[in-house]
Amino acid sequence: MRVTLIALGSRGDVQPYVALGLGLRRAGHAVRLASHEAFRALVTGAGLEFAPMRGDVQEVVNSPEMRAALAGGNMLAINRVSARATQQGALLWAEDGLVAARDADLLVAGIGGMNVAQALSEKLGVPLVEAHVVPFHPTRAFPGAIFPPATARLGGWANRLSHVLTRQVMWQMFRSADSRARREVLGLSPAPLPGPRPLRPLPTLHGISPAVLPRPADWDAAQHLTGYWFLPQDAWTPPPALEAFLAAGPPPVSIGFGSMTTPDPQATTRAVVRELERSGQRAVLLSGWGGLSAADVPDTVFVTDSVPHDWLFPRVAAVVHHGGAGTTAAGLAAGVPNVIVPFFGDQPFWGDRVQRLGVGPAPVPRRALNERTLAEALTRTVTDAGMRDRAAALGTRIRAEDGVTRAAEVISGLKL
Which residue intervals define the domain Erythromycin biosynthesis protein CIII-like C-terminal in the entry (predicted)? Predict the structure, then answer.
């Protein structure tokens, strides 16, 4: 089978689909992955064919408007900036998608590439499998990933409704751009107001560990909770300075917010350093897209742009991060406590899940982040033996799963 995966967004949005593509290739399928040029090396390094999709997500995230919206957790402002970006990108993605899917027997996409993939599926007559790394099918068991976790207090009916509304929010934000791309590039009529209809019903994959999110009892047989989609660990060689830092004292904590940005990275860095001094912790500070500063940090803090999570996280005492689905998966698989500092989107959902599992403290929302709140969370994390034991046990369960192989088996069993 010839499979085209479409994955747009940050590295955390793309990497699980590279892992899934690798599993499909091992299962005997020809795999092409369509993503931004920034991820060409990631895709081809895994041995997959790469198809470029124009656009620069990092440029959008680093814009002053998005920095301010993310810092305040303002979903309306975040959606406005995102909607403008999709208006500019939709025509390009439709053009590039036609090339990427030109000979495909099957399309696979998660939330980041789903709207583009749905239009391509209709244009080319190629079926689409939805493959998500957040729960994206209605259930009474828990709220939709972009709804406040407190929605669950209203009961199962509210949870189920929130999933329907989650899909609608995401679709309506993209709908006008989709209509233009359909009309000007694909020669299609606009999709119905509630959203595109699938070419044919196919299973939905969720690349989430059932040890982290048990399978809801009200999901039908078409919903598959496969386990996380991790790339095989590379034989990565750390820089000598990092190795020396890790060996120079007790395990540090890892602090980084991935693709999330702040209006003043230097101020954020200063607050984090003061917090570390207050809690007496050493740290590896991952600057990421937010550009956390390396200036004027004490010798108890090691600053670096990025380190493979599967190498670093098992070597630290705890992981502090924004709660993106991919980083949360890596942090939990490492078997160490996680401190979630959610900015927006599905990040509060994962922060709530970490707390409920007892493998991390209550989330510290980005707007409430200061030296006191983070110090309190970290102090509790590194002194709570029960939390450390639960995190270690959960990591063992997650590492015993093989979500990539399970997902590839589902796709391989399709009758197209």
Answer: 295-396
